[in-house]
Amino acid sequence: MIGRTLILVGVLFVLTGLLVSLIPKIPGVGRLPGDLLIRKDSFTFYFPITTCLLLSVVLTVVLWLAGRK
Prior knowledge:
The model has no long low-confidence stretch (mean pLDDT about 85). About 60% of the residues lie in helices and about 10% in strands. The chain has two helices and two strands; from the N terminus they run αββα.
């Protein structure tokens, strides 16, 4: 049981690393409609809310499919 858990955690780390390294290369990700960007004189606030929601839906579906037996 612990062996499987460690393997799963390792695979998740690898997939997360690949995702983080590939996201900047995907056009539009991080600049979707609904992502908040507020610029003032010397202040910039950026919150990619639409990107977060999209990523959440994709991960939910992937984990749901992976958990089905």
